[in-house]
């Protein structure tokens, strides 16, 4: 019997504090019009002091477990997609496991930047498909605003914090139909963090930690790459664009989302958009959009969902899911 991973519950959590474009106008030389026109973003959530990636993940996980109607002791594994871990180690997955009180099960972080949700989902899917695990908690969680340079208008308007959670369970019915992961490390100069542990921290505010991005070049690569992965996913499943009920994309920029929807000839009312409210929450974004769509009653059981993401690395990936 073939084993599939089925989504049995989702959850998400956003910090209470909201930073609007108007607030940013007081911090850097920018304006609401520019941010909305170029990105579609109106506001983003910012983690408060004491809130960390694992505490946001914990809140999202509790909601997903509740939606799945299971307790944490039924989990076999936790996979966390994040590029902003609480600590270098223990991993955010281990810190989350402690908060959930399910010690003993496997727990690991996956760092694929903005593709973190899709990468984590794919890793979890492989463990379920192979029969090794039955119930896996998949998290995408970030506190990216902690590494934002608030004096750099080209990046500080883009990012927000948040967490998403998906509970997957083995089932004889689909399920995740396929996942597709790729990376190209050759473009590390276009999108990267400025410092790291082994390459050295600096004598600068925040230890020199900031996001460096050549936005325009990343934009062009993202549009081209996402177009290709959408085709690859459809071909692998012998499907046509019209077979997809919902496109649930990474929420980096509304213009990138529009371009992917256009490629699929999908009406925007079949595309889940949260970038206006959340900004770019990196690894959290796809799961946040999925949870919102389910809770808003848009996405219904039996529908076909195409999840896709592109981010630093470069990394990119997709998941085709029968919900
Ligand atoms: O999720 C991970 C992957 N990341 C992404 O997918 C992000 C991809 N990139 C983007 O979303 C877009 O490139 C941005 C939103 C970052 C920038 O939009 P753009 O249309 O590519 O603008 P640009 O970088 O070409 O800048 C256009 C102008 C520049 O001024 P000049 O040189 O034309 O005089 C910038 O200095 O806009 C200026 N600018 C701003 N003006 C007001 C840049 N940032 C701002 C700002 N407010 N915040």
Shape: globular
- CATH fold name of the largest domain: Peroxisomal Thiolase, Chain A, domain 1
Question: What's the arrangement of strands in the largest beta sheet?
Answer: 1-7-6-4-5
Q: By CATH's scheme, which homologous superfamily of the largest domain applies?
A: Thiolase/Chalcone synthase
| CATH secondary-structure class of the largest domain | Alpha Beta
Label the CATH architecture of the largest domain: 3-Layer(aba) Sandwich
List bound small molecules: oxa(dethia)-CoA
The secondary-structure element order is EEHHEHEHEHEHEEEEHEHHHEE
Low-confidence runs (pLDDT<50, min 5 residues)? none
Structural class: alpha/beta
N-C termini distance: 20 Å
Number of domains: 2
Number of strands: 13
Major β-sheet profile: 5 strands, mixed
Q: How many DSSP helices?
A: 10
The gyration radius over C-alpha positions equals: 18 Å
SS strand fraction: 15-25%
Residue share in helix: 25-40%
List its salient traits:
globular; binds oxa(dethia)-CoA; about 325 residues; Peroxisomal Thiolase, Chain A, domain 1; alpha/beta
């Amino acid at each position: 019997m073939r084993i599939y991973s089925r989504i049995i519950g989702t959850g998400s959590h956003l910090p209470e504090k909201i930073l609007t474009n108007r607030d940013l106008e007081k911090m850097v030389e920018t304006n609401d019009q520019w941010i909305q026109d170029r990105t579609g973003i109106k506001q983003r959530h910012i983690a408060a002091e004491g809130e960390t990636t694992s505490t946001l993940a914990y809140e999202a996980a509790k909601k997903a477990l509740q939606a799945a109607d299971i307790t944490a002791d039924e989990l076999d594994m936790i996979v966390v997609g994040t590029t902003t871990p609480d600590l270098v180690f223990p991993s955010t997955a281990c810190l989350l496991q402690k908060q959930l009180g399910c010690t003993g099960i496997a727990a690991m972080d996956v760092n694929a930047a903005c593709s973190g949700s899709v990468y984590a989902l794919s890793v979890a899917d492989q463990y379920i498909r192979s029969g090794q695990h039955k119930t896996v908690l998949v998290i995408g969680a970030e506190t990216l605003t902690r590494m934002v340079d608030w004096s750099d208008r080209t990046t500080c308007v883009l990012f927000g914090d948040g967490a998403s959670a998906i509970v997957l369970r083995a089932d004889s019915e689909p399920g995740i139909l396929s996942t597709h992961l790729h990376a190209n490390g050759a473009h590390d100069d276009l999108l990267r963090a400025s410092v790291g542990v082994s390459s050295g921290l600096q004598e600068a505010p925040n230890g020199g930690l900031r996001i460096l991005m050549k936005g325009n070049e990343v934009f062009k690569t993202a549009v081209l790459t996402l177009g290709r992965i959408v085709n690859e996913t459809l071909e692998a499943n012998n499907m046509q664009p019209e077979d997809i009920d919902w496109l649930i994309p990474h929420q980096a920029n509304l213009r990138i989302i529009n371009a992917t929807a256009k490629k699929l000839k999908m009406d925007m009312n079949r595309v889940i958009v949260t970038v206006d409210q959340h900004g770019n929450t990196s690894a959290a974004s796809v799961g946040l959009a999925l949870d919102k769509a389910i809770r808003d009653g848009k996405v219904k059981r039996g529908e076909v969902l195409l999840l896709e993401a592109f981010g630093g690395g470069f990394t990119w990936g997709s998941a085709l899911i029968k919900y």
